């Protein structure tokens, strides 16, 4: 993986989904905590999480409290994606996402 190589919008969207899935798998995150962590707009986060299934990643929302939105996201299955690869390349993925 070469973080200095020019990436297409589609590749960047793919890396964004991997990055968000990695963050979800490392801690109990909801939209607010993901927004604070990534500085990504809430709608971008929602769209990326909804599109995880396109990559074979199964993500669920775990209700944790009485309020409807009280809870956190959990990766139930990474599908064909190797979570170890994402974990070992997360710094390079972050560099790619932070480039304009």
The biggest sheet amounts to: 2 strands, antiparallel
| Uncertain regions spanning at least 5 consecutive residues | none
Give the distance, in angstroms, between the N- and C-terminal Cα atoms: 18 Å
Count of distinct strands: 2
| Shape descriptor | globular
Q: Please compute the radius of gyration using only Cα atoms.
A: 14 Å
Number of helices: 5
**Helicity level:** 55-70%
Structural class: alpha+beta
How confident is the prediction overall: mean pLDDT? Answer: 92
Order of helices and strands: HHHHEEH
Q: Percent of residues in beta strands?
A: 5-15%
Biggest β-sheet: strands ordered side by side in the sheet: 1-2
Characterise the protein shown here.
By secondary structure, the protein is an alpha+beta fold. It is built from 5 helices and 2 strands; from the N terminus they run ααααββα. The protein has helices at residues 9-26, 31-38, 42-50, 52-55, 83-98, and strands spanning 58-63, 71-77. Helix 1 crosses helix 5.
Task: Fill in the keyword field for this structure.
about 100 residues; alpha+beta; two-stranded antiparallel sheet; 2 strands; about 15% strand; globular
């Amino acid at each position: 993986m070469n973080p200095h190589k020019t990436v297409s919008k589609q590749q960047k969207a793919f890396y964004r989904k991997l990055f968000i899935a990695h963050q979800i798998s490392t801690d109990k995150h909801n939209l607010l905590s993901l927004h604070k962590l990534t500085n990504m707009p809430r709608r971008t986060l929602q769209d990326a999480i909804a599109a995880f299934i396109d990559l074979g990643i199964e993500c669920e929302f775990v209700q944790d409290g009485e309020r409807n939105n009280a809870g956190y996201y959990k990766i139930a299955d990474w599908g064909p994606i190797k979570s170890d690869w994402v974990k070992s390349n997360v710094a390079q993925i972050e560099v790619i996402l932070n480039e304009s």
